Amino acid sequence: MVLIAPPVRKPLSTRPATRAGKHYLIRTFGCQMNEHDSQRIAGLFALDGMTATSELNSADVLFINTCTIREAADNRLYGNLGQLKEWKDQRPESLLVVGGCAAQKDRDLVREKAPWVDVVMGTNNLDRVLDLIDYAEAWGGITEVVESLEAMPSSLPVERELAHSAWISIQVGCNNSCTFCIVPAVRGPEVSRRPGDILAEVRSLAAQGVVEVTLLGQNVDTYGRDLALDGRRRPLFADLLRQVGAVEGISRVRFTSPHPADFRRDVVEAMAETPAVCEQLHLPLQSGSDRILAAMHRGYNSARYLDKLSLARDLMPDLSVSTDVIVGFPGETESDFQATLDLVREIGFDSAFMFIFSPRPGTRAADMVDDFVPAGVISERFGRLVEIQNASSLRRNQEMVGRTYEVLTEGPSRKDPHVATTRTRGGKLVHVEGQFPAGEFFDTEIVTAAPHHLFGR
User: Fold this and answer.
1) Per mean pLDDT, which range of 7-16, 49-58, 396-405, 437-446 is the poorest?
2) What is the DSSP pairing of strand 441-449 with strand 429-433?
3) Both 124 and 45 in a single domain?
4) Based on the domain organization, do 329 and 449 belong to the same domain?
5) Does residue 111 or residue 446 have the better pLDDT?
6) How many domains does the chain have?
7) Same domain, 256 and 332
8) Is residue 149 part of a domain?
9) What is the dihedral angle through the alpha carbons of 205, 206, 210, 213, rounded to the nearest 10 degrees?
10) Distance from the Cα of residue 160 to its chain's centroid
11) Structural domain of residue 448, as residue ranges?
12) Of 298, 359, 291, residue with least CA distance to 323
C-alpha cells in the first residue's frame, strides 16, 4: 500500500521515545550534504530511543541515504535494494527507509523496483522521518516527497562521528543550470538559512566543545542573495565567514563548495583576514576547454578561472586547492581534453575529484546523445588525467616535507591504532606515530610524503 502525506508531524519536543532498545543502521552515499543529513537522521533516531549498530542483522530500522549525481550511484542503489530483499524476508518486522536525492527524483521507481521498501522520503522532509516510520508500521508502505522544497528545519538533533568537528548547512538547493547536473531538479532552488540561525548553531556547537566547522551549500558564494536582509539582495557569504570565524572556541572554519562564476574578491579577503578560516579552497574546474565550459553552462572560461585562483593564492600563499574535473563531456575532442590536461598541469592542484561523464536523465547533457564520447576513449583520457594529477599531488605534498604544521587529530588510524590520523589547516591527511585523543591540536614536522597523505612526527 502506497500512501501520501500522513498526519501532521508530532513536535519533537513532546515526542516520547517509542523505540527504546531497538537499533538503527544508516548507509550513506554521495556528498557531504548527505553525510550531514545522515547525522540529523541519526540524531532523530537517538531521540526516539534507538542505538546505532554496524550489523545489518541487528538493525530494526535501516535508512539508506541515496545519491543520484551519477548513473553509477543509481545502479548501486538498486543493486543494494535487491540484496536487501532477503533481509526483509527474514526480518519482516524491520523497516527499510530510502531517502536522499534518488528518492526525491525517482520515488515511484524505487517502490516499483523494490516494493519491499517501507518508506520513500524526499530530501527536505528529514524532520518527518519518525512520523513516517510510525505510519509505515501502522498502515504499511508510504511514499512522501516534499515538492515545495522549503528550507529544512535546522533545529534537529545531530549524531556526529567526531565530537570536535561539525557540518553546518547554510543553504539548500541551487540556481545554476549546469547541463550535466541533476542537483537543481532534486534539491530545488537556493534557499538560505538566516545568518542569526547559523550563528546560534555555531555558538551552541562551540559550547559543546566543537572546534572545527564546515559550512555546506551547493553554491556557498551566493549564500544570502535570497534573503534581502538589508533591503537589497546581495551575497552575504564573506560577512558570514567573518562572523563564524569570530565565534569564541571555533579554531577552524571550512566551506564547500564555491562556484568559480560567483567566487568574488570579498570572499577571498574574508578568508585571508579571518584567522579561523582555513587555507583551503575547493574550486570546481570541470574542464579546461572554453568550448566545453560553455556547453556545460558554467558561466566562466579558463582565463577567468585562473584569475580568481591567482587572486586567492596571492592573498593566501599556503593555500591548498582541490577541484572537480569531468572527462568525456559530450562533444569533447582530443583538443578539448588536451586543454584540460594543460590547465591541470599549469595550476598544480593539491588534489582533484575526477569523474567520467555520466548522463543523468532530465539534464540537457543527457540529450546530447549524438555527441557522446566512446567509452574506450574516455577511459584512456581518464587514465592520463589521473597520472598528471597524482604527480601534481605528490609534488605539492613533497614541498611540505621538512616544514612544521599545526594538525588536529581525528583519532587512531583505522589500519594501525598506534598511529594517529590528523589534518592540517589545508585539509591534508597526516599520519603521526603515537596515540592522541581526537580533537587535540599539536605541531608536527612532515617527514615523508605520498600523493594522498603525509607522515609527520
Assistant:
1) 7-16
2) unpaired
3) yes
4) no
5) 446
6) 4
7) no
8) no
9) 80
10) 15
11) 404-456
12) 298
The last residue of one of the domains, among 253, 278, 303, is: 278
Predicted TM-score (pTM) of the model is: 0.79
Q: Does residue 452 have a pLDDT over 60?
A: yes
Residue 152: inside a domain = no
pLDDT digits (tens, 9 = 90+) for 338-384: 999 999 999 999 999 999 999 988 899 999 999 999 999 999 999 99
Indicate whether 191 pLDDT > 80: yes
Q: Say yes or no: 246 and 315 in one domain.
A: no
- φ, ψ for residue 203, nearest 5 deg: -65, -40
Residue 286 DSSP one-character state: B
Number of residues assigned to the chain: 457
If asked whether residues 122 and 18 sit together in one domain, one would say yes
Cell of 61: 530500522
Phi, psi of 213 (to 5 degrees): -130, 145
260: nearest Cα among 225, 291, 286: 286
Pairing of the two strands 191-192 and 171-172: antiparallel
pLDDT tens track for 291-328:
999 999 999 999 999 999 999 999 999 999 999 999 99
Q: Is the peptide bond before 302 cis (omega within 30 degrees of 0)?
A: no
**CB-CB neighbours of 101 under 10 Å:** 28
Among 227, 244, 278, the domain boundary falls at 278
DSSP states of 233-247 as a string? ----HHHHHHHHHTS
The x, y and z cell numbers of residue 202, run together, are 555555531
